[in-house]
């Protein structure tokens, strides 16, 4: 089966380098050094049309793609639908790749996987009259240096009740985007998140996308009521109020907008 995107072309022009901020030096000196390895996240959005498409795509992801991706050394793999926000009906697939080399190698690894080829036959041989999806977008992201790995929520192991919030912050320049990343990664914002019940799944710099520069992160909650309560706790936290009022770190100075979706995991999601 042909892979749906040319991964090497996807990387052309991507902002693979980071911007080092002199203002971050003092804060970083007192914090653990960044990990030498950072996960690469691939976020696929399969756009659907209401009807049988969803069942076809679910069968492919559950029975073919996820097992083969794990055998190829990637994962965990999260699969979600949009509960609140733009994009419904669609299915979002989050794949954690150990490195950029693993991202690039996965198509060849899956292409030589006989079990994948057999399980993916219905997907690979779909006709125009019975497609598994209408279109697909792919976004590539690199984990923050100090949050280098995906954090699977405990609720995933037993498929317990949980929801996810996927947020993207947009900035007007590389410098402002790097400042916002530093504010999270070494400036203390993630620590405030954790303390106030905003539980991270990942934080990442967007390498591809339609409104770069940007960053994306995912949080998890038990339910919407917990989400609302914990965001209120965060918004009134004294450390957060002080941080967001710091000159150079205010929202008008470093962000131009925020995208937000509430996601529900499928029964077979590994996240």
Overall CATH class: Alpha Beta
The string of secondary-structure elements, in order, is HHEHEEHHHEEHHEEHHHE
The structural class is alpha+beta
Q: Give the mean pLDDT.
A: 90
Q: Give the strand content.
A: 15-25%
Please name the CATH topology. Alpha-Beta Plaits
Can you describe this structure?
With 271 residues, the protein is α+β, with helices and mostly antiparallel strands. It contains 11 helices and 8 strands. It has helices spanning 7-10, 25-29, 53-71, 100-111, 114-119, 121-124, 174-185, 189-195, 224-235, 238-244, 251-254; strands at 40-47, 77-84, 90-97, 135-143, 163-170, 199-206, 214-221, 257-265. It has an 8-stranded antiparallel barrel, surrounded by 5 helices. Mean pLDDT is 90; it is low at 1-5 and 12-31.
Briefly say what this structure is.
This protein is an alpha+beta fold and 271 residues long. The chain has 11 helices and 8 strands.
Entry keywords:
disordered N terminus; 8-stranded antiparallel beta barrel; globular; alpha+beta; 271 residues; 11 helices; Alpha-Beta Plaits
């Amino acid at each position: 089966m042909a892979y749906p995107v040319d991964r090497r072309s996807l990387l052309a022009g991507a902002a693979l380098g980071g911007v080092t901020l002199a203002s971050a030096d003092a804060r970083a000196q007192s914090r653990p050094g960044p990990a030498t390895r950072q996960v690469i996240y691939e976020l696929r959005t399969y756009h659907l049309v209401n009807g049988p498409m969803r069942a076809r795509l679910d069968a492919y992801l559950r029975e073919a793609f996820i097992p083969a991706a794990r055998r190829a050394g990637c994962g965990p793999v999260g699969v979600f639908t949009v509960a609140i926000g733009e994009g419904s009906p669609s299915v979002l697939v989050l794949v954690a790749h150990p490195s950029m080399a693993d991202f690039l190698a996965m198509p060849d690894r899956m292409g030589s996987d006989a079990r994948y080829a057999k399980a993916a036959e219905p997907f690979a041989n779909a006709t125009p009259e019975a497609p598994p999806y209408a279109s697909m977008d792919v976004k590539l992201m690199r984990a923050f240096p100090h949050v280098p790995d995906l954090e699977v929520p405990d609720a995933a192991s037993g498929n317990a009740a949980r929801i996810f919030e996927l947020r993207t912050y947009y900035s007007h320049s590389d410098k402002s985007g790097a400042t916002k990343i530093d504010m999270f990664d070494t400036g203390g914002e993630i620590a405030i998140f954790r303390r106030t019940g905003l539980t991270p799944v990942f934080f990442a710099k967007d390498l591809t996308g339609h409104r770069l520069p940007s960053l994306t992160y995912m949080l998890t909650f038990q339910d919407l009521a917990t989400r609302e309560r914990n965001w209120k706790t965060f918004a009134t936290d004294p450390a957060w109020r002080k941080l967001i009022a710091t000159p150079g770190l205010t929202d008008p100075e470093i962000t131009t907008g925020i995208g937000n979706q509430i996601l529900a995991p499928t029964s077979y999601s590994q996240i």
